[in-house]
């Protein structure tokens, strides 16, 4: 279901600006990991000349290919697909890392970036109870309000619940694998990681 303004909304799309705002000036090639039906890939294409989206879920990729737009879509596993190392200026991923071993996925994304390139991730993690209960209750309240105003679009891609990694574990992984990265936990049950690969 689209929102009242005709635009799609869900928790993942809500945080797409976090990805798009991280795109570095002059970026030429971007990779959307776990692109699904291509909402983020199409948005990236408005800022980056060459965009590739990759996803294991063939029906979602077929839907992506039905949309007009100059995006190259691949059905495959980004962990093993023969991308050239250090070949992308932007590697982006939304709601994908919890479908795989998070450390392996982050390391692969890091290795596909050119020096000076940016990795931008929005992901799901598991709350730790009872500490996170007040935050989660607030998230439900705000989410209900968003849905009432904007509607809710259900993506066609497979889901995994609960996420295998907790928020503190994701923060620790980001600090270990992406030194200097910015990790943020967001209200609507998401976290983000933004990291620029050093040039030397």
Summarize the structure in words.
With 200 residues, this protein is an alpha/beta fold. It has a single domain (11-126, 156-196), classed as Vaccinia Virus protein VP39 (Rossmann fold, 3-Layer(aba) Sandwich), CATH 3.40.50.150. It is 32% helix and 23% strand. It has 7 helices and 7 strands. It has helices at 11-14, 16-20, 39-45, 58-65, 102-112, 133-150, 167-177, and strands spanning 29-33, 50-55, 71-75, 88-94, 113-123, 182-186, 190-196. Strands 3-2-1-4-5-7-6 form a 7-stranded mixed beta sheet, sandwiched between helices. Helix 5 (102-112) runs parallel beside helix 7. The N and C termini lie far apart (46 Å). Residues 1-6 have low confidence and may be disordered. GO terms for molecular function: S-adenosylmethionine-dependent methyltransferase activity. Pfam families: Methyltransf_11 (PF08241). This is Methyltransferase domain-containing protein. Keywords: Methyltransferase, S-adenosyl-L-methionine, Transferase. Residues 31-120 form the Methyltransferase type domain.
List keywords for this structure.
disordered N terminus; alpha/beta; 200 residues; Rossmann fold
* Total helical elements: 7
How many angstroms separate the termini?
46 Å
The CATH class designation is Alpha Beta
* Strand order in the largest sheet: 3-2-1-4-5-7-6
Strand content: 15-25%
Domain module tally: 1
Q: Kindly report the name of the CATH homologous superfamily.
A: Vaccinia Virus protein VP39
Oligomerization? single chain
> Architecture, CATH level 2?
3-Layer(aba) Sandwich
Rg from alpha-carbon coordinates = 16 Å
Number of strands: 7
């Amino acid at each position: 279901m689209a929102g009242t303004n005709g635009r799609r909304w869900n928790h993942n799309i809500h945080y797409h600006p976090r990805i798009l705002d991280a795109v570095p000036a002059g970026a030429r090639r971007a990779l959307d990991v776990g692109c699904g039906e291509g909402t983020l890939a199409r948005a990236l294409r408005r800022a980056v000349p060459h965009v590739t989206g990759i996803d294991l879920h063939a029906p979602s990729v077929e839907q992506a290919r039905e949309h007009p737009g100059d995006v190259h879509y691949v059905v495959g596993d980004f962990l093993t697909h023969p991308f050239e190392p250090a070949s992308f200026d932007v590697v982006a991923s939304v709601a994908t890392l919890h479908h795989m071993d998070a450390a392996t996925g982050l390391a692969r994304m890091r290795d596909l970036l050119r020096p000076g390139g940016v990795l931008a991730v929005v992901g799901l993690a598991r709350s730790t109870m009872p500490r996170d209960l007040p935050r989660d209750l607030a998230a439900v309240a705000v989410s209900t309000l968003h849905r009432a105003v904007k509607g809710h679009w259900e993506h066609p891609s497979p889901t995994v619940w609960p996420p295998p990694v907790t928020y503190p574990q994701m923060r620790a992984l980001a600090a270990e694998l992406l030194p200097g990265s910015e990790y943020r936990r967001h209200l609507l049950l998401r976290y983000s990681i933004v990291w620029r690969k050093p040039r030397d």
